[in-house]
Amino acid sequence: MTRAPIVAAIDGSDSARQAVLWAAQEATRRGIGLTIVHVAPDLAAALAQGRSWLDETSAAARRAAPTVTTSAEMMSGSVVETLTAVSTWADTVVLGTRGIGGFTGLLAGSVAIGVSTRARCPVVVVRAPAPASGPIVVGVDGGSAEEATEWAFTEAALRDAPLIAVHTWTEGALSRGWDTVPYVVDFQALNDSMRGMLSDRVAPWREKFPSVRLDLVTALDNPARALVDQSRHAQLVVVGTRRHRPLAGALLGSTSHALLHHAACPVVVVHADS
Fold first, then answer.
1. What is the mean pLDDT of residues 241-266?
2. Which one of 25, 185, 270, 273 is CB 3.0 to 4.6 Å from 148, fit for a cystine?
3. How many CB atoms neighbour CB 272 within 10 A?
4. Intervals of CATH 3.40.50.12370 along the chain
5. What is the pLDDT of residue 102?
6. E strand residue ranges, 100-159
7. Architecture of the domain defined by 136-271
8. What are the angstrom distances between the C-alpha of 46 and each of 59, 163, 227?
9. In angstroms, rounded to a whole number, what is the distance separating the alpha carbons of residues 244 and 93?
């Protein structure tokens, strides 16, 4: 049975070219194919330009990953809707962060958020240049982290990279557990408790991937801020999110949204039902 390929979307920008190179290297690690796509209006001039970009980036991908089976495909229609449809048969969809000329509406901003929100597979948004070293970082919470945690462990094993699992909490979340907030809170004891809970949550993956070097980080902090801070020395940040109903994913979680805008390294968004 043929395995699903990684799909990299291009728009002619330097950011998209960097995303293709990242996708080619990832396809090499995973032993799967790479499909490069360009989505354009059904106009002759746009189609001709798109084919030129596809030829250029396909050649660069083959040079970067000569063992990977690479193909290219021109598509027409709405970028978000088309790439959402692509995500139903892709292993992973990879995007750049900035469109041509730095405009944020092409393969960043609305498109990256739209595709990350609706996709049926993991979505990687690549900031150029992507770091070649550093740990993998994964945000672990109680609602949407299982698939993201598994993805992060798998990636850390493929890259032989250390993994940092991060869990945060806020004073507001703590106060909801008490009728009356205690005058003094033993934050060290609370942090130890949270660390134990985090250890329990990642235990199945630690057992499945015993070679992965794992560090647990717990903190009284905003999750988005904590993960953005971790991204400054990471090669990849992985975050889970849930699909919202009944809008079929019309919203993206606040942590994922913040990371797409502010992380210093590529961000992977993994839906709970990916």
1. 70
2. 270
3. 14
4. 136-271
5. 43
6. 123-126, 136-139
7. 3-Layer(aba) Sandwich (3.40)
8. 20, 42, 38
9. 20
